[in-house]
Amino acid sequence: MDAAHAILVQSSAGKDSLVMLHRIATWAKKAGCLHKVVVIHIDLGEESEWPGVRELAQRQAERYGLRFHVLRAEGGLLGLVEKRGMWPDAARRLCTATLKRDVANKLLRQIAAELGLDEQAVILNCMGIRAAESPARSKKQRLAIDMRTSANSRMVLTWHPIFEVTDREVWQEIATHGLEYHPVYDALIPRLSCVFCVLAPFDVLVRAARLCWALGLPLPARYRDLEAKIGHRFKQSHSLAEVYAEAERLERKEGALVWNRGDAVRQHLGADAADDYLARVALAA
């Protein structure tokens, strides 16, 4: 970290980004280079992100006194889907490539130019990817040169600081330090990705639809109708129409979705850990 001229932290405001940010800020402060750290959040728009995500990402950065930038992708995810007439998938992750990576790379180039160095700028691009998340992610390198973004004036190193960290360890760190996480985790949505992520399993998509209704969001119908309009199935295994129908069935059977603050910590670490976490958060408020 000391050798880098700038440290860029890409934050989704999710649990992994949160723990990554906490670790980087702690390390940078000890190394005397906290001033090099910049936190960015790619805002995918209200039709893709859960409410409050951008504001949470900002609060998470401000906890450590870090600079914070919001970048927005023109058109958003649904605009891109409607334009292309198809949903992204694991092989064609347009949401990552077009809406996130390409937008973030513009800021990387801008930061390198603003440094105004006579030598090649070294930029650490930090992402909260973990090997345990998927077989594909487990094959990534912990640290690698980003050949796509590097140039004569800059060398960009992609770094995954929490690559070996387990899911339980993520939640343990959140609980121990009283870190603020997004409430959707308490509704037992496992990842703070897009509201309807093409990589999410059927049961998570169904729960996301029910959570939308509990929050008064019209997104389930919006996504279902867009699927019908473009004539492209959301996933080969299931359509959004099927997700919608199953969510409606469960609503009739179980009633509206309910949850309590601390339920995510309770699920992963137990009731005592959840009580301790809530007490820490209350003291910090």
Radius of gyration: 20 Å
Number of self-contained structural domains? 2
**Assembly state of the chains shown:** single chain
Strand order of the largest sheet: 3-2-1-4-6-5
First-last Cα distance: 31 Å
Describe what you observe in this structure.
The protein is of the alpha/beta class and 285 residues long. The protein folds into 2 domains: 6-159, Rossmann fold; 168-284, no CATH class. It contains 11 helices and 6 strands. Strands 3-2-1-4-6-5 form a 6-stranded mixed beta sheet, with helices on both faces. Helix 1 links the parallel strand 1 (6-10) and strand 2 (37-43). Helix 1 crosses helix 6 (167-177) and helix 10 crosses helix 11 (271-284). The two termini are 31 Å apart. This is Phosphoadenosine phosphosulfate reductase family protein. It comes from Streptomyces actinomycinicus. GO terms for molecular function: catalytic activity.
Which properties best describe this structure?
285 residues, Rossmann fold, 2 domains, 12% strand
Question: What are the SSEs and their pairings?
Answer:
Blueprint (H helix, E strand, L loop, with lengths): L5 E5 L4 H17 L5 E7 L9 H10 L4 E6 L3 H9 L9 H22 L5 E6 L8 H4 L4 E3 L8 E6 L7 H11 L24 H14 L3 H12 L9 H15 L8 H7 L1 H14 L1
Parallel strand pairs: 1-2, 1-4, 2-3, 4-6
Antiparallel strand pairs: 5-6
InterPro entries: PAPS_reduct_dom, Rossmann-like_a/b/a_fold, Sulfate_adenylyltrnsfr_sub2
Pfam families: PAPS_reduct
Organism: Streptomyces actinomycinicus
